[in-house]
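Session log. Operator J.P. requested a structure for one protein chain; no other inputs attached. Running the standard single-chain path with token output.
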Amino acid sequence: MRFTLLLPLLPFLLLLLLSHSSAARKPTSTTSHLVRTSCQHASYPNLCLHTLSTSPAQTPRDLAQAAVAVSLSRARKVSAFLSQLSHTSSSKPKRQRVALGDCVEQVSDSVDELKRTLEELHHLHEETFRWQMSNAQTWVSAALTNDDTCLDGFQEVDGEVKADVKRKITNAARVTSNALYMINRLDESRGRPRSKP
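Structure written below.
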């Protein structure tokens, strides 16, 4: 009997629920559109979508910052992994120990470069925009070079360690490559911050 009394209200309740749900989704769909359109031409579009799909970015500048933050997070994880591996490699062949030691330094440098990049992107200014973008591009490119150099050091090394290092470094390099794309895209769109009155 109570259900029968609620029947006339059902269409109204459904309409209310749907309008509330669509209003709640609007900001997310805007963000999703920005991420989708930005990622479609990235070096690794699927990875780009996967790593940035939950980003609250509303502008190309936000998205570049988010992409660099993801890259920095991955680089830190790889750095920690390599450091731990290096500490437990005393019984490993010399070539592998040397390659690991070099990798630890190179990935540590990448972490520093990505930190500097993120800091630069957080403090963009109209009058120094071009110079700051050049800095960001240089640092992220250097981080990518460090990843390549790390992998080159493992060319003559065999075994499971090489496979693990290669997998982690390759993943970090792909995310960093996408971050560089987002920075280049920001530079091309001249996504300068608005001047404060």
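Operator note: Residues 10-39 form the longest helix (30 residues).
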